[in-house]
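The material for today's practical consists of a large collection of protein records. There is nothing in a record beyond a sequence line and a structure line. Backbone structure tokens are a discrete shorthand for how the chain folds in space. Nothing more is needed to start thinking about how sequence determines fold. As an example, a complete record with its sequence and its structure tokens follows.
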Amino acid sequence: MIKWFEIALWKRILAAMVLGVVVGFVWGDGVSAIAWIGQLFIRLIRMVVVPLVFVTLVSGVISMGDPSKLGSLGVRTLAIYLITTLIAISIGLILAVAMQPGMGVDLSAVAPTAVQETVPLGERLMAIVPENPFAAMVEGNILAIIFFALLLGISLLTIGDPGKPVADFMSSAAEAMLRITHWIMEAAPFGAFALIAQLAGTAGVGALLDVLGLAIAVVIACFSHMILMHGVIIMRVVLNLSAMNFFRGARDAMLMAFSTSSSSATLPISMSCAEKNLGVKPVVASTVLPLGATINMDGTGLYVGIVTVFGAQAFGIDLNFVDYLLIAGSTTLVSIGTAAVPGASLFLMAAVMDTIGMTPEQNAAVVGFILAFDRPLDMLRTVVNVGGDLSVSTAVANWEGEFDKEVFDNPLKN
């Protein structure tokens, strides 16, 4: 008999998800009795996110040994994140124009849903600097935590020996948090089972039928972007690495992203995959991945772009080339700092739809229409977000000389 822990984690998660779908369909609404298992798992993951990001980032900066290296890493990271997001949005817009998922859709009977007021970009950027770093940690404000952790890491790096006790403490704390993360990952199959079972039991197969055209466009866009942008262009063309090895190394994180619909909740697993499977050194993984979980929203961007065009088609609004440029540019900007939690993109749509002249009532009708179907689509776009984070971290690690190709090419991966 094969022991549980001898089975590769991704196989256990995948089997649990399949079983969860079956149990959900059979059990129906009764599946809510095990919903607490999924909620407990999410709480465990969120418990470690803030301390993990903080201590690993401080430790990673210290391990650089040269403060100027952080500037090079940061510029490259931000540039490639913005480029991949813009390309993702472009793919989504092209598919939305070609497939026209909104043509013939009647939204007049849809009950409008209140749309959360969007936060201006200037306020988002200002919030990066925390008034109280401890409050930022309590609130889970990842960008503010990253900012403070970078300052602390750089200060410890520049003061030398006097900062060594704190630096050693941060290094030990990072190891401890990674060990806790490893323990939590072993519970992932049970959490994935409960989360998927709850979705299948409450939504059912018919949840996507009423929005099939939009769903197909989103699915094709997600797969196209992951395979073409991250598999072919970044891995094969730019880095000359095996795309199959990349997807194999990233699969645990991508499966967890599908289960949780949250880049933030998947962050500990993403960091583990980057270091153990993809050969990304901790100095890059601890910097690039937390930033990516906050600002890299490839899946969210293409989804918002498709839904915006869908809404325009449904309401008979003719879009020209300038309108598509406005959608692409505004989606790229508003996706920066999007909360890495389920359903966050629903509240970005108003800001983007405003740019093409849609009224608040029309915005609310579109959100109300897709609200019931958003979770399954959210699961897919979160996979793209997390996959993009891991792809960019692999690229940056290569360029910064912080990459272990032997780990990436390890043929003994399960």
